[in-house]
Amino acid sequence: MPYRVCFVCTGNICRSPMAEIVFRARLADEGLDTLVEADSAGTGGWHEGDGADPRTVEVLRAAGYPGDHLARQFRAEWFSRLDLVLALDRGHLRELRALAPGPADAAKVRLLRSYDPAAGADLDVADPYYGGIEGFEDCLDSVERAVDGLLEAVRAEVKERS
Hints:
Belongs to the low molecular weight phosphotyrosine protein phosphatase family. The chain is an alpha/beta fold. The protein has helices at 15-29, 54-62, 90-99, 103-106, 133-161, and strands at residues 3-9, 36-42, 84-87, 109-111. The protein has a single domain, classed as Response regulator (Rossmann fold), CATH 3.40.50. Helix 1 (15-29) packs across helix 5 and helix 2 (54-62) crosses helix 5.
């Protein structure tokens, strides 16, 4: 059974799809894409069925990543099939832990930037939605740094399972 990861932000059109796409690319680069599945969702359903924000797509493609994505809302019943739920900021962390059916599921929720040793105390990935393209570029930079550490942690989990 694959190790399953879900990235969660507010509307699932900026930060969480960016994290999902970067993580999937790194999994493929490392040959782990058959052992680990990744997806993303939003805490709310405002954008369900929409593609990623055009600025997200622009920044991802400029960095060599694909930009295909459809937004969806996170559901409490998903906890049972997920190994790790990665919140993109503290607000998402609180919402997801409150949504968790029990303590074991709440323990699956972590902040993505907690995997970036250089992040310090600021573990939120800044929301670029209300700003310009620079915010999306900064978001990608934060995501890429955190994904490096996440990949190491997930690799260790997968190895431990086998």
